[in-house]
Amino acid sequence: MARSKSSHRWMQRHVNDEYVKRSKREGYRSRAAYKLLEIQEKDHLLKPGLVVVDLGAAPGGWSQVAAELVGAKGAVIAIDLLEMDPIPGVTFIQADFRDDAGLHALEAALDGRAVDLVISDMAPNVSGMAAVDQPRAMHLVELALDFCTQHLRPGGGFVCKVFHGEGFDAWMREVKQRFGRAATRKPKASRAKSREVYLVAGNYHS
User: Which residue in 75, 100, 115, 136 is a FRET match for 93, CA 20 to 30 A apart?
Assistant: First the structure.
């Protein structure tokens, strides 16, 4: 089947993308790693010794960054429905964190430890229809916030991709009720045309 013009344009942008080139040169699995690195440079949430949970981790760019920064005394537990190749210092669970089985597997891997930081670069499979895609995206971030309320230690942090649109303002109000500080970031590695922004929250309180 011939490739569509839009598919060809996407491939050209991808191949020429400076962050794609950097990720290949520097050994990161995805250009998304640079979004987290830029957030880290500004907000300093990842520190040696932390217990980090990466929701929707595949292909592993964020887990790579987290494992590097928390070091041998820390722990990174990653979960995704898709397969992910092993990463040193990362415990990976192939499961759906949206269902009970996935949550139980994640809790077993935590083995009673409180979580210092929850990170999530998740996005739903897009249909191209905002009326469908936005509710799906908001459902994921609502589940991620709910996971924080169940497992994040007092004072813990949360970094999460979220899309502007219906439900965003109400979700941000809920985040601000649960965290002492919350802001959104638009990293340079995030494409300008994308509606995505990144929530960065800290000082969690129940």
Answer: 136
Classify strands 152-163 and 115-120 as parallel, antiparallel or unpaired. Answer: parallel
Its pTM stands at 0.88
Active site residues: 161
Six-digit token string for 30: 């995805």
Residue with tokens 């040169």: 25
Q: Give me the phi and psi of 152, to 5 degrees please.
A: -80, 135
Domains by residue range for the chain, with CATH: 30-204 (3.40.50.150)
Contacts 24+ apart (CB under 8 A), 133-142: 133/163, 134/163, 134/165, 134/166, 134/167, 135/166, 135/167, 137/162, 137/163, 137/165, 138/162, 138/163, 138/165, 138/166, 138/167, 138/168, 138/171, 140/56, 140/98, 141/171, 141/199, 142/171
